[in-house]
Specification:
217 residues; alpha/beta; TIM Barrel; hydrolase; adenosine deaminase activity; metal ion binding; zinc
Amino acid sequence: MAGEGALQFYRELPKVELHAHLNGSISTATMKKLMARKPHLDIHNDMTMINKGQKRTLEECFQMFKIIHQITDTAEDILLVTKDVIKEFAADGVKYLELRSTPRDTPAGLTKRAYVETVLEGIKQCKEEGLDIDVGFLLAIDRRGGPTAAKETVKLAEDFFCSSNELVLGLDLSGDPTVGHGKDFMEPLDKARQSGLKLALHLSEVSNTNFTVSLLF
């Protein structure tokens, strides 16, 4: 099996994706839509994508996400990204998908709660459109926000865990591994576990090697 036949075979093969960062899964096609909405930002494709064979330092990767956040700062943007990402995973044969993203307040007026609501709305709309894919959502705790922001995210996750019809599964501790210490988040993570939320922990992210360990328990 080779060429186009092999590509089609692997695309149709049922798959599970357990580690999909929402803003890290935006395709070139979707990025072009977002950039077209905000031409005043003068953001170009090479500022938001890592092409095959390219290498970036860990610092450069996080800088890239800051740029992506500039063009995904409204509910309309987040809904577009969520639906496009889910549709593209479904087209690639993924039958079960776990999205993760850090709820954030934006200069455009989007609140953390509205951010989560918008992601969940995107998931619901894809299901209503008949896409053959089941999607769960993990609220991500960004280490750079510290324990106080982590507690806010845990509270959000608890609220949606009880009201989202099992779309919110748990929490993800991620972000720049050079910032803070994992033990700083033990209190909010323990509270999350007591509430029945599952946890995914990034144990290591090494620049250039793209090595990440993520455990859901």
